[in-house]
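Notes from the 1:1 (GR / supervisor)

We went over the backlog. Supervisor wanted to see one worked example end to end before approving the batch request, so GR pasted a single chain during the call. The sequence is below; no edits were made to it. Supervisor asked that the structure be written out right there so they could see what the output format looks like.
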Amino acid sequence: MPHTYTLIFIIIIMAGLASYVIPAGEFDRVEDEKSGSFARAITLVLEEGKIIDSLVFMAASGISHLPQTLNVVGMFFTQAFLSLFISSGSGQAAATMPIMVPISDILGLERQLAVLAFQYGDSVTNSIIPTSSALMGYLAIAGIPYERWVKFIWKLILGWTLIASLALIAAVALGIS
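Structure output shown during the call:
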């Protein structure tokens, strides 16, 4: 019996050859910028309803007196909190970055810091949020109850949160652009 990797390699080669032999159909994809995901719908309502400017102004004016390091850490915690409701990273980016980027502009922060806060906030929470279908699938397959997982992972999440906060503070201090 051949080794498992040999069989997988042969199957990949056969699939590659079959993709040249078997004709693939052509599909016309119609993109309408007014339609799309739920996250795009949120952005559309905020933009078309002329709400986004007021929201950005209120958020920025409420925290503009704080030091920039606290502002960027606040952006991180905001993104982490929003991960509970929007577990998709791309969906969260589509819904929140049209708000976070102008806030960073008003506060005098680099846009890259807003993106970094989003990335840290989304990635730190991926291992603990109960709305993540991937996490719930992994736990179900492994037979681990969610409560037991939280007892196991909370210290690591706390450490990641501390590291991410310190990295954001360092990014502000170093003037990352």
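Supervisor's comment: The chain has one domain: 34-174.
Batch request approved.
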